[in-house]
């Protein structure tokens, strides 16, 4: 969209930067190939005769794309947590058990696992724009369906609505690294990924804070409870509708010029050279990625479990403190947002992916141990502090995993690697939530948290075993860590021979 005047204006404003060689950290030349006009030579950028320069530029639209994506990801995360943080309220309103309310959160995890492969295939086959519209559109549909569940006998309706939101999540969680890679340059890609993840974290934070304020526990007045829930549901639906239309206006498939050297190489690949099946096989054979897949699932699954059961853990020791339970959850996630941004900036500056990931993993483990043994001391201020420390590292880890995966799996699709990481997280999240919930109910919150601590320790060991092979960084730095050889391609426009780059993975 908006190809005409805006792109011409961008080209004029950015030409000076391109001429001066400000190529976002990419080498000014690579093997003498230069992208040409969009749509020529069978690819998004074409090429010119040998001796030209590979152009990489930043588009102003990238900030709008990142902002809109972060916002509708925020709303989706808000809809995930809004039931569990009010588990006692919704259990009373619908007349169901706490386990049934927990399933309103776990349906997000259940839906993700079988749908992730079709969703990542759609992302690779049909592109970023369609995937973004599906995510925002289904998020809007689920929000409006919830407005039809405002009666005590409509638990099934609210479950169906939450299931729609869960499907929307499949088209959202795997996009941060794709949005960052396609739209942002090497010196800002990790920070952009962190901001994209930040939207989801902020939605969880708002989900911890706002619902307890909008829907106070009024067990003796069901009509008032229904009215308060309606305010939350209708407000969410209106916001999600606005964001759906903004997604249609702002999102484009990709910028006119690639933002990085690694993206330029990928865009030069003829479409017929890409195989989704082979990409999956390559990822499964990549041992460092498999280790990251398991360790990421453990960490993120533990975060999902703690978030889902936080209300039950807090009210076990601090009866009647539903609002403070929400505030503690807010503290946990806001601290994690700060951690995400700091980690993203740190990665862009140092490129120390494995070291940073391992240190954050160890500190998350220590944070959960401290949180576990201070939860029952009777002082909420201590829980706020330990929850904040836990959140800083545990949720700050999320963009680290995405970016590390992209580095060690390049040139495989960012959406596919991120999607598999999230699928692992959902599987571990389901198991952890069920087991921790059972241990919390039958024994105590400490028993459930110690179960998670044991798994985090396993995750530390797996992370330490990952071999750090920064393929994307090496390409952007001009260090070819994979074969890149020219393959003749006939131009459908000019009927001239042009050379595109075919990238073959070392996998």
Count of structural domains: 1
* Major sheet attributes: 2 strands, antiparallel
Please indicate the percent range of residues in DSSP E strands (runs of 2 or more).
Answer: under 5%
Output the structural class. Answer: mainly alpha
Helix content: 55-70%
Low-confidence stretches: 1-53, 481-507
Total count of helical runs of at least 4 residues: 19
Query: Gap between N and C termini, in Å?
Result: 36 Å
Q: What's the total number of strands?
A: 2
User: What best-fitting shape do the alpha-carbon axes yield?
Assistant: globular
The whole-number mean of residue pLDDT values reads 78
Q: Could you spell the SSE succession in H and E letters?
A: HHHHHHHHHHHHHHHHHHHEE
Question: Which architecture would the CATH scheme give at its second level?
Answer: Up-down Bundle
CATH class label:
Mainly Alpha
Return Rg in Å.
Answer: 24 Å
CATH topology: Growth Hormone, Chain: A
Strand order of the largest sheet: 1-2
Give me the CATH superfamily: MFS general substrate transporter like domains
Features:
507 residues; mainly alpha; Growth Hormone, Chain: A; 19 helices; 2 strands; 3% strand; disordered N terminus; membrane; transmembrane; transmembrane helix; ethanolamine transmembrane transporter activity
Which helices and strands occur, and which strands form pairs?
Layout: H1 5-19, H2 61-81, H3 87-94, H4 98-126, H5 128-146, H6 155-170, H7 176-183, H8 189-214, H9 222-250, H10 261-267, H11 276-285, H12 287-317, H13 322-350, H14 353-374, H15 380-394, H16 398-409, H17 414-442, H18 445-464, H19 471-476, E1 483-490, E2 497-504
Helix pairs in contact: 2-5, 2-6, 2-7, 2-8, 2-9, 3-4, 4-5, 4-6, 4-17, 5-6, 5-9, 7-8, 8-13, 8-16, 12-13, 12-16, 12-17, 12-18, 13-15, 14-15, 14-16, 14-18, 16-17, 17-18
